[in-house]
Automatic annotation (TrEMBL):
This is ABC transporter G family member 23. The keyword Isomerase does not apply. GO terms for cellular component: membrane. It comes from the Eukaryota. Keywords: Membrane, Transmembrane, Transmembrane helix. GO terms for molecular function: ABC-type transporter activity. Residues 121-498 form the ABC-2 type transporter transmembrane domain.
Length: 510
């Protein structure tokens, strides 16, 4: 007709953008007719499909309002038999079930990706956090022994009988200390240097991690401390100490060296005391007894320097929230941008049902993921001290808060780039302010309230530690506070999502 080619299609809406003129029709009603680019500009859309969805939504609103006033004049050549059913409460579960089936199908088709982003990530993080600081880089320590004995290879230098008495004189205690070190740390050898300058030269070239210098009258100084410290020469007392120089730029190795130096010296000191009939508690340094049994539960033993326990529990808490976001944000954002759910919405599936399907799937996923994390953690690293079911409940409540946050981000972002950017910023902030890098108790005071208000996993982490360390019950202050705040967090996000959905023009415009 006049050299025009007319193509009628029901699926390839976006491809019609190449035409000179496009007409959009639904249910027998002509919704719009104009050049494609003019329609896109008129409706402030990015795609022709989005224009069509806005027109469909507007048509539905007009039909509902005109039907109520009995003024509706229909141009419809047929009545959609599924419209009434699709809006009825009885259609919620079939629609939700269809969304669930779609998600499960995606997981099956992308099984390696799903496992990596979910259970694999959780297990790897738990193992990593618990294994850190349990091993250290190959380390060599140098020592300079100004006492007789040199490199202390002769067993007679440290296996001799220890003299006792008020004026007993000790010999070669430096070699006894070196022998204790070598017995405690076979994987951290000590290298003898005859000159202090040579040892420091190798230390500055990082060939050795630390240099220990044993004074010439070290043994006499120890004797003075034990026997007649009150009247001893101050210089003699000063020479009963070992000089240590460590490369503090290497935190891991330096920390290990410092701990082992103290432990080896105390072990040697206790041997002297035991041989002479002294109470070994005299060697306790500092001279105090730290008791924590009034603050933690029965049979709970926590090494105050074991930071791995603290970090691991925070990681488990964070993963309960983060894994949901890692799965939901990219999945739903990509489907939103590609128009998959827009077509579902056009077919009668409401946005509420789309979100409900994802919520049900992720709640089930969180339950399985939490069970896997706790099983791995309690089997290999930490014997549970509190109620496991309460820990399981806390972590799943946190998972629900992560789901609602993810849905809110989906509603607020326009594309996958914005969604991913938010996720990256959220992960960095979560690691910085919720107890992963340093304890929340030590956070800069102005940041601490922000950590509790913005991130629900801060309170959940504190409650989780209370369950394990203090054997707290469900009515414990920290547990109740974390649950109440988390549910408030979930309800607040749900209310904001509901308001955004009510103002929508289409799914892709959320």
């Amino acid at each position: 007709m006049d050299g025009r080619t007319i193509i009628i299609t029901t699926h390839y809406i976006e491809e019609a953008r190449q035409a000179n003129m496009v007409a959009l029709m639904r249910q027998g009603v002509l919704l719009a007719e104009a050049p494609p680019e003019d329609l896109i500009k008129q409706y402030h859309a990015t795609t022709l499909e989005d224009v069509f969805l806005q027109l469909c939504y507007k048509q539905n609103q007009n039909q509902d309002s005109q039907a109520d006033n009995n003024h509706y004049i229909s141009k419809i050549v047929f009545k959609n038999p599924y419209k009434d059913k699709s809006q009825h409460i009885s259609a919620v579960w079939p629609h939700t079930q269809a969304i669930l089936y779609k998600i499960i199908t995606w997981c099956k088709r992308n099984f390696p990706v799903f496992i990596t982003l979910s259970f694999g990530l959780s297990i790897m993080c738990i193992v990593f956090c618990n294994e850190m600081m349990t091993d250290f880089p190959p380390t060599t320590v140098g020592f300079v022994n100004h006492e007789s004995g040199g490199n202390c290879d002769d067993p007679n230098l440290y296996n001799m009988t220890i003299p006792c008495g008020r004026y007993a004189e000790y010999e070669n205690l430096g070699c006894r200390f070196i022998n204790n070190w070598r017995n405690r740390n076979p994987k951290m050898p000590m290298v003898y240097y005859s000159k202090y300058e040579d040892a420091m030269y190798d230390g500055k070239r990082t060939k050795i991690a630390a240099v220990l210098e044993i004074p010439e009258i070290f043994s006499q100084g120890i004797s003075a401390r034990l026997s007649h410290g009150r009247n001893a020469d101050p210089d003699l007392i000063g020479n009963s100490s070992i000089n240590v120089w460590g490369d503090t730029t290497d935190y891991m190795r330096t920390l290990k060296v410092e701990v082992e130096i103290q432990a080896s010296f105390i072990e040697m000191y206790r041997t002297l005391l035991t041989s002479c009939g002294y109470d070994t508690r005299v060697a306790d340094m500092p001279p105090m007894r730290i008791k924590t049994n009034l603050f933690i539960g029965e049979d709970v033993v926590v090494d105050m320097f074991d930071y791995t326990v603290y970090v691991a529990m925070n990681i488990i808490s964070g993963l309960a929230c983060l894994c949901s976001a890692l799965l939901l944000m990219p999945l739903l954002s990509v489907d939103k941008m590609s128009g998959v759910y827009a077509r579902c919405h056009l077919a009668g599936v409401r946005i509420f049902e789309i979100f409900l399907g994802h919520i049900i799937f992720l709640i089930g996923y969180n339950m399985v993921n939490t069970a896997v994390m706790l099983t791995v953690y309690h089997t290999f690293y930490w014997k549970p001290k509190g109620k496991v079911w309460l820990s399981f409940l806390l972590l799943n409540v946190e998972g629900l808060s992560g789901i609602m946050l993810s849905l809110l981000v989906i509603c607020l972002t326009d594309n996958i780039t914005q969604c991913t950017s938010f996720l990256i910023v959220y992960i960095i902030a979560m690691f910085s302010f919720t107890g992963y890098i340093w304890p929340t108790e030590a956070v800069w005071p102005p940041i601490k309230p922000l950590s509790h208000l913005v991130f629900p996993n801060t309170r959940i982490s504190e409650a989780y530690r209370a369950v394990e360390f203090k054997q707290a019950g469900i009515l414990h202050k920290e547990v109740v506070g974390s649950l109440v705040y988390s549910f408030f967090y979930v309800l607040l996000h749900a209310a904001v999502i509901w308001l955004l959905i009510r103002k929508k023009t289409s799914f892709s415009s959320l």
